[in-house]
Write a structure and sequence with these properties.
Length: 243
């Protein structure tokens, strides 16, 4: 059977999260006067990113709520025993800078346009609906998707098969008729493949060039390569640059 629907990751797949996070945190740390303890802005940003990954892992494992992982990111980064309200306020000040630099990747709208008539579209993210619904509205693509499913509300997160299968269930399609597109080789790529979906791993700029590619996902460098993977119903395509 041909692929009937595409389910999308959001951060670093549709939305340039890494750039927005870096620029937003740079502006936030400068405004907060928090750079004196670091050799460079990049060192401070890397510290923030390391803490984010660790706290996000706690959330993914069910050890913290979405709100708790945000607050703990702030507490660990500042090394302070903040109240929930203080941590929330600090994070919200960061969000103001972060949202000011939100942008889609340039290949997103062309591929959504190309696949709009031939495939159904949905979102599956390891974030929360509150965050991703607002983000997709701000970026002008919210109405492109039939549904937006997020780990915080589903109660299961990628790479668990249940997260991918929940998206298939919503669409009323078996996994082999659904493609999943995401940027992380394990969480998105291997997870979707193990759940039985057509897994498409987008490795922009060879970000993961030094790792052994997981077995299962199709690896692409640009969303312009996606339509050719989805079959003859697609209206344009480009050959894979990874082979």
């Amino acid at each position: 059977m041909s692929i009937q629907a595409v389910v999308w990751d959001v951060d670093d797949t549709l939305f340039d999260y890494t750039t927005a996070d870096r620029l937003g945190m740079r502006a936030h740390l400068t405004a907060e006067g928090l750079l004196d303890g670091y050799d460079s802005v990049e060192q401070a940003i890397e510290r923030w990113r390391e803490i984010t990954h660790l706290q996000w892992a706690r959330f993914s494992a069910g050890e913290a709520t979405f709100e708790e992982q945000r607050r703990d990111r702030v507490r660990v980064f500042l090394d302070r025993d903040l109240s929930d309200a203080e941590a929330d306020a600090w994070f919200q000040r960061y969000v103001t800078h972060y949202e000011a630099v939100w942008t889609l990747f340039p290949d997103v709208l062309p591929v959504l346009d190309a696949l709009s008539a031939s495939h159904r579209h949905a979102v599956l993210s390891n974030s929360s609906l509150h965050v991703q619904d607002r983000k997709l509205r701000a970026l002008g693509v919210h109405d492109r998707f039939e549904t937006i499913l997020c780990a915080a509300e589903l109660g299961v997160s990628k790479p668990e098969a249940g997260a991918f299968l929940a998206a298939c269930d919503f669409l009323g399609l078996p996994p082999h008729q659904v493609a999943y597109v995401g940027d992380h080789p394990e969480i998105d790529g291997r997870g979707a493949a193990d759940a039985g979906l057509l897994s498409v791993w987008i490795d922009r700029g060879g970000r993961y060039a030094t790792i052994e590619p997981p077995v299962g996902p199709h690896r692409i460098a640009s969303l312009g390569e996606l339509p050719s993977l989805l079959g003859p119903d697609s209206r344009f395509g480009a050959p894979s640059t990874f082979g």
